[in-house]
Amino acid sequence: MSYESNPHTTQTNILRHLLFTTGASFAELQKDSDLTSDHFTFHIKKLVESGYVEKTDTVYRLSPAGKEYANRMDTDENEIEKQPKVSVVVVLERERNGQREFIAQQRLKQPYFGFWGRLGGKVRWGESFEEAAQRELEEETGLTADFTYKLIFHKRDYKKATGELLEDKVFVIMYANSYEGELIVDYEGGHNEWLTQDEFVAKDKIFESARDFIDLIDAGATYHAQEYYYDESEY
Q1: Both 128 and 226 in a single domain?
Q2: Which residues contact 202 (CB under 8 A, 6 or more apart)?
Q3: Domain shared by 75 and 89, yes or no
Q4: Greatest CA span in the chain, whole angstroms?
């Protein structure tokens, strides 16, 4: 069972209760609930099936997975907090004919269809930033490289007309200037090219943050936060 969205209110209440104790009986958990025993049992069973709650004899407690999940709970609002996405951005550089070129990628999937940026993707559970950068590069370009950390970039995208927050992302910028392999130009969801910074900026639709990455690396920045605003037709 996936709990990426908030679970039933009763299940959230059970998780919250167990967050503040080493274990509780059925009666203790049901004490402040107006549900019948059968209905309450249903919700406890769902949590046990999900792997978030364990039962030993007559005592219920959070499993290791349940502790990690419930630890993300806003205990005032009684809901799981929505958090920024953590992704790596791959900046791969080479020199050709005396000019600096960087791998650029046109996004050919929603959202931001047609926009140009740097390749990258979400960091998987238990994965190092170096491993994530290497995986994303090989999956999307067929190239391999050894990456080093450069900076953290906190990017928040807003809808220009209403100010509504569209996306909240923490980018870990990883850099390499040598590689092996043959570039895959086209793949499902994207198109790759080597471009100079001027060629990249000249594209019709670009992620402004992707333009800024190079300048920040050159300046030796270690952290940067910025807000960007998009028309609804662009998102």
Answers
A1: yes
A2: none
A3: no
A4: 76
Please, what is the average pLDDT of the chain? 90
Q: Is the dihedral of CA 5, 10, 14, 16 positive or negative?
A: positive
4, part of any domain: no
pLDDT tens string 72-82 = 777 666 677 77
Q: Which residue type, as a one-letter code, is found at position 101? A: E
State how many domains the chain has. Answer: 2
Q: Where are the alpha helices (DSSP H) in 102-207?
A: 129-141, 197-201
- CATH, residue 163: 3.90.79.10
Q: In sequence order, what are the beta bridge partners of 62?
A: 53
Q: For residues 73 and 120, state if they share a domain.
A: no
DSSP string, 7-59: --HHHHHHHHHHHTSS-EEHHHHHTT--S-HHHHHHHHHHHHHHTSEEEETTE
| pLDDT tens column, 158-168 | 998 899 998 89
